[in-house]
Amino acid sequence: MLQYKIPENADTGTRIRAIITWLATILLAGLIFIISYIGFDVNRHSVLAMKKYKGDRVTAMTRLIDADGIPLNLKNDAIWALGQLGDARALPMLTKYFYDGECHHDSTICQYELKKAIAKCRGGFNITALFWRWTISPTDSLTLTETE
User: Fold this and answer.
1) Which of 53, 86, 144, 148 is the most exposed place for a label (fewest CB within 10 A)?
2) Over the stretch 52-102, which tens digit does the pLDDT of each residue have?
3) pTM of the model
4) DSSP the chain
């Protein structure tokens, strides 16, 4: 277990600063993990789409969403990833499927994910993307072939 020793003779101010420092360190480590995981997951969805469809990550994921025979969970994952990327080029495809109604996950693309992705592609707030959006490059290690 992680322990942080505060000297027995430390005054109250020193104790409070030590506790705040310890909590801030834990919080920062957790934040870095979450941000890294989001970037990794976006990259993973991008690579999956780019293995099947030619083009950059936005083009490949929009084509995946529009393709027949793709399971809804993969389409919803691609929608989420496009929202995280926040690229306006995805808007035509995202708005094509958005009807602002209830979600029916067994038969249609998730409207909630579409709504969030559209907002982010229109410049909506996405703090985590500021840290990873420009650092991932799924095309570096791929040989792309078009299947459709």
Assistant:
1) 148
2) 999 999 999 999 999 999 999 999 999 999 999 889 999 999 999 999 888
3) 0.72
4) -------TT--HHHHHHHHHHHHHHHHHHHHHHHHHHHHHHHHHHHHHHHHHS-SSHHHHHHHHHH-TT--HHHHHHHHHHHHHHT-GGGHHHHHHH---S---TTTS--HHHHHHHHHHHTT---TTHHHHTTT--TTTT-------
Q: Give the pLDDT of residue 146.
A: 42
Structure token pair of residue 75: 């389409």
Tokens representing residue 20 in the block: 């705040």
Q: What angle do CA 41, 33, 38 make, to 5 degrees?
A: 20
* Single-letter residue type at 96: K
What is the reported pLDDT for 127? Answer: 74
